[in-house]
């Protein structure tokens, strides 16, 4: 037997163990010996029952994603499951860790499932732009009912062993000794005697289904699909399980899977899966990490409060420092209110709320931070204030404490230079709301020690953030590219577009909202203040701000908002203002198509990414994709701006940038050398992070 699959006999119960680190994916070198082992055991009289278990940290976490897009090697998972269903003796899956995707499908091929209490079970294929392709859409509804199966398959979110037991997905949940318990269970079933009914023949949950209610549920889910094909295919497949005979539904699932797996959306989502894992591997990851047991946060405003919650949610004690007792209490009250809302929405238990609140301490004296291993500064975006804060930190922080700034734009090297320990200083750029948004840009300054980066990358993982290491420049990766994306926004309006037309081009592309809606949500005064500080102007936005139109918070901005509503309504006054400004500037307005809008916003976005790559501000093109998908809502089905550039055709992007450069005379459209090279070679080349 191969080292990936071994068989032992425990007093008449055959135990098949899969051992394919790190997550026991069903690679070809697992499928082949697994198929052979099961073929032998099916007819082996010495085996009265079969248990399938896994070595290492988890049960099978799915098909081997690296094999998708390559020629299929037989036997496929479907054949293994079909074989399992012909076994006349009891088959039992012993589940620990996670049974995901093809892993859960393998378990569904068994007669019974025994799970450890901490195990999680799910069909996350939708997150890879796929649907379960090993019979999951057809078998799962037979055990848990179509409504529950649909919710699990379309969300991709795994459920706990307890929930799985309540839903009849597992037959027994055990606290410990999983393998021994699974063997005992299998032996008991063998003693009890057959016939053992495979899941494919269990139709009782299907017959009782209310198809109209199912369709209503499916229609609700379809509304949230936002241009993604996979959730719709999942729905279709689960519906087939109700309306078609088993084999026909299985064949239809296969067809849908084949279509998705060879499509661009799944390719993009698989790219992101690996990109996120790659981004987490920061240089120096294997270095000795520093211990982080308490975190200090300076500033309990929007960001400080959110960062504190993110850390407490990850179980870390936090000390908040503010300038006055009043500001501190305000910050703590906001945190308390946010947790109370989570409890009222049912996303947090009362017990967890109290436990989290117990992790917060506050103070107004720097000495309160002396025992912190990491101190994150989130005060006003002002270099003088930040330098003052870091100068004070230098005098009180314990040796070896990591000092981080959450600055959005300021020079982290300059901030680090205001201390005597620049090796311990870096940027931790969280996104708002920091307790919700997954992205963390880890800003590596010139002198940041590698083990400091590694420690913070580890911490990010501990609190569930997706971390990307970036270099120092104005706005780092995300905000710098955001400026490039928005550089032509006003020009588009002056030349003939309306805010609503631009925003529609964005939502049609798959963004959750367009730049003008986004501006109204964030507050137009922020950009106004920044522009004034930098001596810049924006003819229309500045006028709106001068008139007190800051966006949603004032009831008007680029759009109008009815009292209490977040629904943007086109504002004739804004359109009149745009027309007046265009006339003042002598610009003849014309029809602007969606293509023009995309070319003048997203092509500069890609172009700026190329510059970032060649300057070594990001190590890999895929890191930039991770930033944009997790921090700015770039549609996952397009894989991030740098991946999308490949889909769109880099040659076309270069050509159109050149066209717009000639037409407008603006340098934003000058194609970056790295983009030109990408157009020639089809591969992004970067300089690596400095
Ligand atoms: N195939 C190939 N490699 C995989 C993999 C898979 N299904 N799942 C994880 N890996 C790799 C990761 O790329 C990573 O590799 P690296 O160390 O070289 O970067 C390594 O395994 C460890 O993964 P994580 O860092 O994610 O480990 P965690 O412990 O944080 O998480 C996990 C473990 C929850 C299992 C997570 O890896 C995960 O969610 N995996 C994907 C699960 C999934 O999507 N399964 C469905 C696959 S599609 C399918 O089954 C189709 C079927 O219906 C036919
Ligand atoms: P904010 O104005 O909501 O909060 C700042 C807080 O810092 C205030 O409560 C203030 O009392 C406190 N403060 C000021 N000086 C202080 C000092 N010397 N010591 C202790 N506390 C002090 O500002 P916000 O939005 O939280 O921004 C903070 C930082 O985070 C800025 O650098 C900003 O650029 C950055 N940032 C902001 C994002 C956002 O969306 N708001 C996103 C990412 C980063």
UniProtKB/TrEMBL annotation:
The keyword Acyltransferase does not apply. The keyword Methyltransferase does not apply. Pathway: Lipid metabolism; fatty acid beta-oxidation. GO terms for biological process: fatty acid beta-oxidation. SUPFAM superfamilies: 6-phosphogluconate dehydrogenase C-terminal domain-like (SSF48179), ClpP/crotonase (SSF52096), NAD(P)-binding Rossmann-fold domains (SSF51735). InterPro entries: 3-OHacyl-CoA_DH_NAD-bd (IPR006176), 3HC_DH_C (IPR006108), 6-PGluconate_DH-like_C_sf (IPR008927), ClpP/crotonase-like_dom_sf (IPR029045), Enoyl-CoA_hyd/isom_CS (IPR018376), Enoyl-CoA_hydra/iso (IPR001753), NAD(P)-bd_dom_sf (IPR036291). GO terms for molecular function: (3S)-3-hydroxyacyl-CoA dehydrogenase (NAD+) activity; enoyl-CoA hydratase activity; isomerase activity; NAD+ binding. Residues 295-471 form the 3-hydroxyacyl-CoA dehydrogenase NAD binding domain. Keywords: Fatty acid metabolism, Isomerase, Lipid degradation, Lipid metabolism, Lyase, Multifunctional enzyme, NAD, Oxidoreductase, Peroxisome. Residues 475-561, 597-683 form the 3-hydroxyacyl-CoA dehydrogenase C-terminal domain. It is found in: Peroxisome. It catalyses: a (3S)-3-hydroxyacyl-CoA + NAD(+) = a 3-oxoacyl-CoA + NADH + H(+). It comes from the Bacteria. Gene3D superfamilies: 1.10.1040.50, 2-enoyl-CoA Hydratase, Chain A, domain 1, NAD(P)-binding Rossmann-like Domain. Belongs to the enoyl-CoA hydratase/isomerase family. In the N-terminal section; belongs to the enoyl-CoA hydratase/isomerase family. Monomer. This is 3-hydroxyacyl-CoA dehydrogenase. It comes from Mesorhizobium atlanticum.
